[in-house]
Amino acid sequence: MNRREMPVASETVRPDPADLGIEALRTHVAGEMQRTRDRSITLTSAVDDDELVEQHSPLMSPLVWDLAHVGSQEEIWLVRDVGGRSAVRPDIDDLYDAFQHARADRPSLPLLGPTEARQYVTTVRDKVLDLLERTPLEGRRLVERAFAFGMIVQHEQQHDETMLATHQLRRGAPVLDDVPPPAAMEADSLPAEVLVPGGPFVMGTSTEPWALDNERPAHEVHVADFCIDTTPVTNGQFLRFIDSGGYDQPRWWSEQGWQYRQHAQLHAPLFWSNEDGTWWRRRFGRVEPVALDEPVVHVCFHEAQAYANWAGKRLPTEQEWEKAARFDPHSGRSLRYPWGQEDPRPEQANLGQRHLRPAPAGAYPAGAAPCGARQLLGDVWEWTASDFLPYPGFAAFPYREYSEVFFGTGHKVLRGGSFGTDAAACRGTFRNWDYPIRRQIFAGFRCARTPGRDELS
Ligand SMILES: [Fe+2]
Q1: Where is the Sulfatase-modifying factor enzyme-like domain (predicted)?
Q2: Most buried among 23, 41, 87, 381, using CB within 10 Å?
């Protein structure tokens, strides 16, 4: 077993690609690609080759599939399309096309072995670094402000988070280093919720250079007054729902949610177990008592919705979540991040796999939004009440399969990123989506509610 240091996000502020000159932009892109590849290497060298090709859960691909898939997408988009160069391995395009093969079927494919996969991604990367030096980063939308390179960095980071979820599902001794997150600050004196006054705000973006198509364009949205929890819902709060019989009372669940709760026999968050009245959880190979002050994680949309109903609240809409996270009432503008315009620093958000768990509720005061809510970015993905739908004026770019084919009522939107999400793949406008039954992702939630008239006077 080869234990590796966990990647540590850069302590320096990551520059906004929009602010850089062309040569500085090239340097920035190369740095982001290297930092991302280091994380992929950490995740795939932490286990031996047998475990790399093994399927740890039918919900996930073998880790070696993710690795070669990352290289395949990099080859298709950057080597072939942006660079106009000849294909490296056109014979494996189909094997690593996520739309051709369900995750459960991938272990039975004639995949590249660990050594071959590593050689392949290195060969592709060498070609990409060469063409990064020569490609004009303007004049064609795909390369404007290095968009395609940014898209590939985000894609690899997203697979790194997926691989981290595979590590969580894997059985066996711990192989990843476990650095504790910071403690909560003044958590006891924090209000349970904050009020966000009604009014318009600008949602989405038309200017963020590496924003993906579903985040575009910027558009004005009117949101009525709402209250939103200051922090994500904690394990301690969720335990009260369990202890009061929340999993056994259909009145808290939607019809679809109750059906799923019955079918899947849900009784607690995934990876929890109860022994002699004590709740334990398994976290990356370690079994430990459930930490009461941490945000709950590994709950599906239906569980989040049932809790919110039980608590007399509801899940926030995606519009409410983004307004709480971005709207600055002093300037009337929408910020890139809750704390402002600069990219995330370690003291602002639990991102980038620096820690293998969410920080206690109330941590990261430096990352608070203007409304006072904390931990909107990082820690846990947050389920919203909203279906994944296009914004007005949406245009698929650069391909329909990135977002457009997923729009509709089948997927719910998640916001804010988790401890396993890299800063390059997370911002105030970033939208994630998944099935409402999904539990292996690093997802929790916070609640919202519509205030009564007497509260507003
Ligand atoms: Fe992918």
Answers
A1: 190-449
A2: 381
